[in-house]
Prior knowledge:
Layout: H1 16-29, H2 33-47, H3 52-65, H4 68-83, E1 90-93, E2 106-109, H5 111-120, H6 130-144, H7 148-162, H8 172-186, H9 192-212, H10 216-222
Antiparallel strand pairs: 1-2
Helix pairs in contact: 1-2, 1-3, 1-4, 2-4, 3-6, 4-7, 5-6, 6-9, 7-8, 8-9
Amino acid sequence: MAQPIPDLTLRDQPDWAGAAEVLIEGCAHLPSREDRVRWMERLCHSLGDALYPAFLQVLCRIGEHGNPQAQAAVADTLVLALQSGRLPSGRHAAWGAQWDASVRATRTMGPIEYLCAWFAQPDGRGTLGAVAFDQAARALVGLVSHSEAARRLYCAKLHSVADDPLDGAWTRSSRHALQAMALSWSQADPEPYRAATQAVEAFMAASRHGEQSAPAATVGALAQGWIPPASWR
């Protein structure tokens, strides 16, 4: 039986390494597939929607600093979560909501889509700057790439999101950028972090191309400096 996860709160200087160890421990040593997925779900749910970026920071910490065995254990758990439709997700404003305060629509997004939306379609928290996005996205995509099954499943997920113009979560240019990321990632070098570099660079290049033809107000919002939320510090 899975051990209970203690309540998680963010201090002025969160213990990201300790939180990452908590996640790795469950993903590596719990006895059943169901226990491992539930462990990851509970860690995410204990933070809640408002602190979902903190869950992403934990994944990024593992992607940047975990040893190969730890990274593979977490990536394998992500495979199980993807296969069962239980990938820990956060809520981000739908594409019309970030410009119109009267619009309250949100969409549930997985870790990589959430980062992409935060960068390309900022909401009330402010823009995720290019440097912060590049670092975090490479860590996440590299982490997922430690499992070839997870990479294939996530590429298919991104293709599906990009091909759905009626979902309402994404602008046309953002869907084009997601498509570019998925295509590059699916064809990338099998080494995890080279794959991540290719995928993230494809997304950013497609995003820059989209900005050139975007309305002035949109370009201005995308050009703002990153305003780091407290949960990301």
